[in-house]
Design a protein that fits this description.
The chain is an alpha/beta fold. It is about 35% helix and about 20% strand.
Length: about 230
Amino acid sequence: MSITENYQRIRKEIPDNVTIVLASKTRTPEEIIKVIEAGATDIGENYVQEAEGMYNCLGEKAKKVRWHMIGALQKNKINKALPIFDVIQTVDSLRTAAAVDKRVERAGKKIISVYIEINIGSEITKDGLKPDYEIIESLAREISRLEHLSLEGLMTMGPRFGNPEDSRPYFRKTKDIFERIRALNLPNVNMETLSMGMTNSYEVAIEEGSNMVRLGTIVFGKRKYEN
């Protein structure tokens, strides 16, 4: 099946209330144009430099979708990131949040949407806050005080297993944290999005409450460096 057919099929299969963010890592502008023309609304990039190149290549088409930063955001890349991205899904410290907040107006924006990233599996090789509720709540309260950030959700990668069912307890735990943060009704916090689940696990993630999934391979096919 073509990229267009893959996207349209998966869009029909996934509930309407679930946003599909298409991970564009290593993809070509031609491939991204195909999914935008097929109806894609959200694109995710892992690296600021790649995002900048892709955004510029797409021209006016780039403005038809929302851009999500789904990789770690280095402090020295914030100035380049802010003009491109509508959402930063990977905030995992007050230091990062404050650095972004300080630069939003300089980028010509009044506010930017952010999610707190949780390392729900406490994996050494992954970014994100450890799944300690008090630490996550503390960061949520700190972000709520920042003038130019709107905290709108949580994001997790979750451990990757051969059997997606093994991810279920991690997604369930993330959903519980999400609901507890939302119940706080913090000022300037609008907890609406739970971003979890990728190609190998999105179905289980949705069953456990995810309303945003990040898909790549299932739509675009395997990356060139994948066997």
